[in-house]
Recover the amino acids of this structure.
């Protein structure tokens, strides 16, 4: 009964490169969320996806960031032309999507992105 | 305005004692859920406990209980019989019905358990 899986766990990129973060939700979960955590801060919502659909991307920067959750395969968070300010931990969470209030989101271990 | 406020950046507790971590929230939505997560030094986010706004009783999960005071808009986490392994960051979070599935997190409280 695997939990939420994220890879890579650590990612180092130079400024201007692309970062691609992957997330496989828990079995039976159809909802995926991405959050960003800066050092010593709480998590900030970025985007919420269901299979093949972006439901809420209100927390996503307008430029350079994109997310997808294809019919087959993991959800991908892509950051193009990374800058030092993108250095953070990126967490993926998944939930069954049964209720807005009670749906518990289970988190993956996170990907720690370092931009040199 | 802050939706979730955790006023204690750091807390110390003696092993085997109980500790309360504070959380207040701000919402005009009558329907919402409150969550607590633990983040140890290894970095993962571990779900601890959930309280719904319409729940009549305070939630409990093992050594964790949630002191839910709706009128005061507070949802404090109580950890009984603290253990060294409880040392971690603790985040309070909320989801409003009108907010969809977006969860809003507080800034966290770092708990240190002393032997």
């Amino acid at each position: 009964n695997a939990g939420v899986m994220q890879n890579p766990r650590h990612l180092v990129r130079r400024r201007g490169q692309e970062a691609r973060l992957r997330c496989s939700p828990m079995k039976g979960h159809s909802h995926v969320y991405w959050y960003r955590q800066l050092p010593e801060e709480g998590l900030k919502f970025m985007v919420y996806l269901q299979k093949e659909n972006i439901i809420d991307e209100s927390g996503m920067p307008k430029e350079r960031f994109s997310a997808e959750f294809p019919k087959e395969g993991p959800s991908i968070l892509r950051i193009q032309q990374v800058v030092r300010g993108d250095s953070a931990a990126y967490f993926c969470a998944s939930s069954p999507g049964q209720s807005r209030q009670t749906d518990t989101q289970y988190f993956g271990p996170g990907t720690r992105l370092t931009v040199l | 305005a802050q939706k979730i406020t955790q006023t204690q950046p750091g807390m110390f507790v003696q092993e085997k004692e109980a500790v309360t971590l504070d959380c207040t929230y701000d919402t005009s939505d009558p329907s919402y859920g409150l969550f607590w997560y633990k983040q140890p030094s290894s970095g993962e986010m571990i779900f601890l406990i959930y309280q719904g706004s319409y729940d009549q009783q305070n939630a409990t999960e093992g050594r964790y209980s949630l002191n839910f005071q709706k009128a005061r808009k507070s949802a404090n986490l109580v950890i009984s019989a603290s253990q060294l392994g409880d040392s971690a960051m603790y985040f309070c979070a909320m989801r409003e019905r009108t907010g969809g599935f977006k969860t809003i997190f507080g800034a966290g409280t770092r708990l240190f358990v002393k032997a």
